[in-house]
Structure formats: C-alpha cells, structure tokens
Specification:
Number of strands: 19
Strand order of the largest sheet: 7-14-13-12-11-8-9-10
Oligomer: single chain
Shape: globular
Length: 506
C-alpha cells in the first residue's frame, strides 16, 4: 500500500494494506483503527515509526480524509500514537514498559473502546453552540432552594438520607407511574424505574439486552453517547439516515431484509443532533416493521416536552399495542441536568433485569436529588418553570432559524425543528466543518462538527448547532460570525479552483 516513513526518511518496508469492507456493519474508521491497533500491538509498527499522513492515506485508500482522522484520533486516545503539529503522527504505545517505568495503563486497558466526542475547548466568553443543554440563566434557583428547604424540613428527611432502592425513590416512582397512566404509556404488564439520567438508562438497556455480535439499528447522524455504548457492547451497528420526518423507514425495511436486528433505537421527538421528529406515518411503519421482525424498540424521548409549536404526536410507546416498546425519559432537559434524574418505562421483565444491573453498578441513584425534584414538581414550580422554558425556547429557535437564513452561505441546508435544542446544518461542498472549527474558535464561537455523530457515513460538511443555552442576541452574533467564516472559505476555495490550469488536450 505505502512505503512506511520513519524519522522523516522513506524506507523499503511496506505497511500491510488494511482489508476494509464498506458493506460491514462496523464503520470504516473503526475498521482502520482496529487494523493499526493490531499492527502496533504486534510490533509490526514499532515505537517511533510515523504513520502515513491523513491526506495521503485517504488518497491511497480512496476514503474521505475525515474517516482517516477519526481513526487516528481513536489511536491517540488509546495512547498508541501521538500527533505532532507539522510533523505527523508517530507510534508511541504497544511496547512493554522498561524496568522501573511502571505499568503501561494504556496497553493494559482495553484498546478497542470508542472515546466520546472530545470537549470543545472555548474561552469563558465564547459563544458555544457545542453542548445540548438548557440555559443556566433560566434556572429558578430561588424556587429550587425553597424545594430543598421543604424536603429537609419534612418528617421523612432521615429516610431520604438512608440507603434506598435501585428502582428509585419510591414517592417519585409512584408520581411518575401515575403520570404514565394518565398519558397512556403504562400498560398492564409494564413497570418503571428511576436512573441517573437518560445516559445510564441507555447503558442499562444495552447491558441487559445486547450481546457481542447483535445487530442494532441506530439513527444516522446520531447522538454519539448512544452510539459509543453499543460499540462498547460489541454490537454491529447499522445507521439509518435521518430526514425531516426522522428515520427513513424504507431504509429500515431494506436493512431488515438483510438480517434480523436485536434492537432499534429511535428518538421520536426533536432528535439529537438534527432536531427531526418522526411523523405519525413513520411511527406506525417502525412499529409494524419491528413487530414483524421481533426487534426491540428503544424509544428515547428526552426532548418531547420541549415542543414550541405544532401539535404533539403520541409516543411509540403509546401507539404500541403490544406494550413491548421501552421508553426512556429525563428531567434533564426541562429542569436541572446536574441532578441526573431519568426514568424508564417498559415491560416488567426488562425493568426487573435493569434494576438488578443498576444494583450491581451503583446500588441506587441519589435520593436527595429525587426527593427535591418530586417536591419541585408537586408544588407546581416545575410546571411554571416548564412554561418559561417553552417561551424562551421558542424565541431561541426562531432566532437561530432567522440567523441561519440570513447569514449562512448560499447553498447551505439546515433542519427546521418545531422544538428541542438542536438543528443540523449542511454546508456547500467542499467545506469541511472540522477544518474550520479552529478558525471559528479563534473568532470566539464553537460548535460540534458532524463527524462526531456519524455511525458509518462521516459527513465532513455538517455541524450541529445547539441553541437552547444561548440568548437570541448571542445566537445571532454567533451564527453571523460562522456565516462570515464559511462564506469567505467557500469563496477562497472556489476562486482557487477556478485558477487551476486546464489539462492539455491530446
């Protein structure tokens, strides 16, 4: 494939060509990561050797440069290589430690793990579109403080501080069960458990349900924290493209025609990162297809309570006559994400196994957070806060859509959600959002490039704008800065392309 480079000089050794299968359920960047990991750990690539530059390797393999960069980032996170600006990436791991050096923890720990999307560094005064979270300015701190005081003054406060149940703080669990009955998401064979946020709920579901080699359908692009959980479980992932109406149901049908899938994970409302919402027809189609193939539906509905306009749709759980859908929800997006309180509603057998798994993991979630949230809810303060969140969210959504319309370069496409916290932007080719991120950061704006949300199809021209944490003025200012950066780079690239000499006619 390539003459290896060492110490800046070419030599005759050949790096074995990776056997990449574009039809595999394992994304190409993970296949490439696995290939180089084996070479380094087997000492076929030795400490100090330089890996091929990303641009050169992409050309040799016929891949997008973003794919190579994603594989190299994983290798660097594993401690197997080190990237040096202006010099390239060099092998640093894989060797046994010399006497007296201590243990090499990177080699002892599993090198096949997938690191989460790295935090996007930004100055304190930067305009950050990088994190999907509510605004601290909207937190009703005084109301929350009163709720805390009421809990601590209550006759049962001592029991709140005692060891509890892995299923959750029972008064809050009963409150959520009653709310589920009123909404129509609790079937006779269902139960409910409380988790430390939706992320733990996803982790517990995959722990009790997924085994290595199981096939799972995910959204593409999709939430990176969800994808990484299933990769760690050894699942074979297939990404289903997400359009304006959510997952493409015809693509689900094509995938299911090729084999049985253990689970399908879907965000029914205001999907992260696109903001897309499943239409009623798509919901019916997913229920029908999953039911006919014996596929478990895991419905992530943490954004459903953030609808700013339009009529709400019933959840898949509500529409599922079998009651088999597993529904995940959370307080994090509508109240205080730092408290980490979520819950799962599903068939009793599944909830029982998840409760056992949680007991092994952390015994139970923090009871004080649960008790305070319950008091915050039953006092009416949560409902009042929810109303303020919806009003502010609508203003921020309108601001980001208007800014995208007004400032992003011609040819840009972006989603138009009716709620949630995020929208998805696709810039005109050949712009690469990963390469432009550094320039945006220098101008005081951050975002998350689309490559972090890829399941199997990296999209270098895409990015997520998370708008809920910013006020309208900062949203407009930030998008305007991004628009200027993207437009000037697009003009430069097109101007450069137009000046390239025409090939000789022979």
């Amino acid at each position: 494939m390539h003459r290896a480079i060492q110490n800046g000089m070419l030599h005759s050794e050949v790096i074995p060509t990776p056997q990449l299968d574009p039809r595999s359920e394992l994304p190409l960047y993970q296949q490439l990561h696995r290939h180089f990991t084996e070479l380094i750990r087997s000492h076929a690539l030795k400490k100090g050797e330089r890996l091929p530059p990303t641009r050169e390797l992409a050309g040799l393999l016929g891949l997008n440069r973003t794919t190579i960069s994603a594989a190299y980032e994983m290798l660097e996170s594993d401690g197997l290589i080190s990237g040096q600006v202006g010099r390239g990436s060099y092998v640093t791991g894989g060797d046994a430690p010399a006497a007296g050096e201590g243990l090499n923890w990177n080699s002892l720990l599993d090198g096949s793990h997938v690191p989460p999307a790295p935090p996007i560094p930004a100055p304190q005064d930067a305009i950050s579109f990088a994190v999907s979270r509510p605004s601290e300015e909207l937190f009703p701190v005084d109301d929350f403080r009163v709720s805390c005081e009421e809990v601590m003054a209550g006759p049962d406060f001592g029991s709140v501080l005692q060891l509890g149940s892995p299923g959750g703080y029972e008064p809050l669990r009963q409150y959520l069960l009653e709310a589920a009955r009123r909404e129509g998401v609790l079937r006779p064979g269902d139960d409910l458990m409380i988790t430390s946020g939706c992320q733990q709920a996803l982790d517990l579901v995959r722990r009790v349900l997924i085994r290595p080699g199981d096939k799972v359908l995910l959204e593409e692009p999709g939430y990176t924290g969800l994808k990484n959980l299933f990769v760690e479980a050894g699942a074979e992932l297939t990404g289903i493209p997400v359009q304006a109406d959510g997952m493409e149901t015809d693509q689900i049908e094509r995938a299911m025609a090729r084999g049985r899938f253990k689970a399908l994970v879907v965000t029914s409302n205001f999907q992260n990162p696109t903001g897309a919402t499943l239409s009623r027809e798509a919901r019916e189609s997913i229920l029908r297809q999953a039911g006919s193939m014996g596929t478990v539906i895991i419905e992530n509905d943490i954004y459903g309570q953030l609808r700013y306009e339009g009529a709400p749709l019933p959840t898949l759980k509500q529409m599922d006559d079998t009651g088999d859908t597993i529904l995940l929800r959370s307080f994090s997006k509508v109240s205080f994400p730092g408290l980490r309180v979520g819950w799962v509603t599903g068939p009793r057998a599944v909830i029982a196994r998840m409760t056992e798994a949680k007991h092994l993991s952390d015994l139970h979630s923090d009871q004080l957070s649960q008790a305070v949230l319950l008091r915050f809810a039953v006092s009416g303060r949560l409902e009042a806060h929810h109303g303020r969140i919806l009003k502010a969210g609508a203003e921020r959504l309108h601001a980001v859509l208007a800014a995208c319309d007004g400032y992003l370069p011609r040819g840009t496409r972006f989603t138009r959600p009716q709620g949630g916290m995020n929208l998805w932007v696709r810039l005109p080719e050949p712009l690469d959002t990963s390469e432009l991120l550094g320039r945006a950061q220098r101008e005081g704006v951050t975002y998350l490039p689309g490559k972090y949300f890829a399941v199997g199809r990296p999209d270098p021209g895409s990015l997520r704008l998370s708008f809920a944490g910013l006020d309208p003025a900062h949203i407009e200012k930030g998008v305007k800065i991004l628009g200027e950066i993207f437009s000037s780079e697009l003009e430069r690239l097109r101007d450069s392309s137009s000046r390239e000499p025409a090939p000789a006619m022979v």
